[in-house]
Amino acid sequence: MINKGKILVTGGTGYIGSHTCVELIEQGYEVLIIDNLSNSESFIIDRIEEISGVRPKFYQFDLLEADKVDTFFDENKNLKGIIHFAASKAVGESVKEPLKYYQNNLMGMVNLLEGMKLYGVKNIVFSSSCTVYGQPDSLPVNESAPVKPAESPYGYTKQVNENILKDTVAAVDHIRGIALRYFNPIGAHASGLIGELPKGVPANLMPFITQTAYGLREQLSVFGDDYETPDGSCIRDYIHVVDLAKAHIIAIERLVDGKNTDGYEVFNIGTGNGFSVLEVIKSFEKTTGIKLNYKVAPRRAGDIVQIWADTKIGNEVLGWKAEKTLDEMTSSAWTWEKNYRESASQ
Ligand code: NAD
User: 83 by DSSP, 3-state: which?
Assistant: First the structure.
């Protein structure tokens, strides 16, 4: 098998990270994972191996431990690049515990960039988010739309991290970076072996749907059906996690091949289509045959009404395009939930 070189994936046992590890291995990369398992489980390493046939090298530690990050770089001097997923990601929790978010999301990035600077590592892809746009003035939203005041400490860490990366690229000759602004990743790998595995009550729609369908939650709340959207519920650009994972391979290769002549670039990663919460529920019910127990609840403070991506730059410059449909997203999410619950109960 060809070896295209070593890629470090931080947060590689997490939801998007694990799918990206599989794609990287399948493309011939040697994958090294750093994860502290604060929001994931070690069995995911077995699952990555089961799907791809290769076991990634796993380093279990916290990116906040600067000495361990330094030792990692010292021991792995020939990294081709880094894909940096590791962060805390619950918007609501970030409002209650802002310092945890500023510590974890900002210092993790700083420690990683320090290591890259010191050890000559060149390329980094960073997980940003469409939260940086807030409620955009026009839709679809493109990369030059203004970054709006953040609605939460979590959102603010994404904005600040983009700036940290941009400033570092400007100041350190050898470092180049791409920030990918994800829209709403859902779905799971076709094998049903990896998927989204939230700890505690899910903060996102899709795992709440699948857990309700499985009987773990009594009822799903749809927050608001009186917005100015066709069916009154909020609209998002849902993207299949495997399509999203593939965007990372293309982005890291763009950096490795020296194609990003600007040094720092930003791309939207979405499908370009908006679907409402009620449409996602309908797709889930259609693909699984399960009638979902849901109710309409009052609007939730701070929710963006509608957002979807302008994907032109990603499609043309990056050469990436989302391929999977909403039905593939909802059905794969269900297959994963069912498989996981059944395997966990054995
Ligand atoms: P996740 O929680 O499933 O994965 C993150 C992983 O990072 C976890 O395995 C966690 O244990 C690890 N981690 C966290 N802090 C760490 C630290 N200090 N040291 C080492 N490991 C640490 O989240 P995800 O959904 O896969 O998201 C990955 C990235 O994408 C995050 O940066 C998130 O903010 C961003 N993002 C996610 C979404 C989404 O809806 N899932 C949307 C936009 C952006």
Answer: strand
